[in-house]
Amino acid sequence: VVCLVAYHIFFMLFVWSYWKTIFTLPMNPSKEFHLSYSDKESLEKEPRGESQQEVLRRAAKDLPIYTRTMSGAIRYCDRCHLVKPDRCHHCSVCDKCILKMDHHCPWVNNCVGFSNYKFFLLFLAYSLLYCLFIAATDLQYFIKFWTNGLPDTQAKFHIMFLFFAAAMFSVSLSSLFGYHCWLVSKNKSTLEVFRAPIFRHRTDKNGFSLGFSKNLRQVFGDEKKYWLLPVFSSLGDGCSFPTCLVNQDPEQASTPGGLNSSSKNENHLFPAKPLRDSQSHLLTDTPPWSETTAKAEKGKVGMSNPALTMENET
Hints:
Layout: H1 2-23, H2 37-45, H3 50-60, E1 67-68, E2 76-77, E3 82-83, E4 89-91, E5 96-98, E6 103-105, E7 110-112, H4 117-146, H5 155-186, H6 190-194, E8 198-199, H7 212-220, H8 277-280, H9 291-301
Antiparallel strand pairs: 1-8, 2-3, 4-5, 6-7
Helix pairs in contact: 1-4, 2-3, 4-5
């Protein structure tokens, strides 16, 4: 009876998470990231190069973006006509920009991104548990098959096939699930593993990592009771993400350029910038910026935010 109940629980959770992975539409960037009609016209009129980058600088001056292209330019999608949010990529299969895109999965015929990444992880987890459960309960009959302990019927070949299929899927799913668990612990996506995110000053493969606990909460949320259920509980809006490069202590001394001069943090040179309210609580370990501190920093670095200043093409 216990095995039968466990079987049905695993099967229901497996089907539920698989359904949510398939039919949850990937989230697209909000309207604020789309260029206005006047900006589109200006971008089309201007020749390629610095003049176009000036148009994009104006469009992105109030947007919470930190990443850049390899040449240092603001990331822009000429297919969707929008400034790409951090960790957003254009899917050639879906033909649209996907927030925090991980990959396009042909097994679910859908993009795996911010809106359904938790469902995809649970789908892998419950698929693995389901296969392990089948292999474990079928093992005794599989042993009897080789010891001639089963009746000589065609059913015994079904038992052999079921065990081999469950065991093979268990091996493949365990490797895939383990890989994505590692991605969650490092707060990375599959695309960011192959190409590390590029910030204004340097490339940093761990730029979005906030530590294991906070990385886990970004995907599964703060409410632990929802972690094992295929219900959306991820933190944030998918357009802005906290990063260790902007989690700086305002008590520390800064250079006139707004960069921390401490040799301890020389690998994380990036100007501080306010995050959205939906993400700021992940950085509660850091003293919040006060209005006086913000004004003082603004006087040091000038009226424009260095995070949105374009580097010249080289």
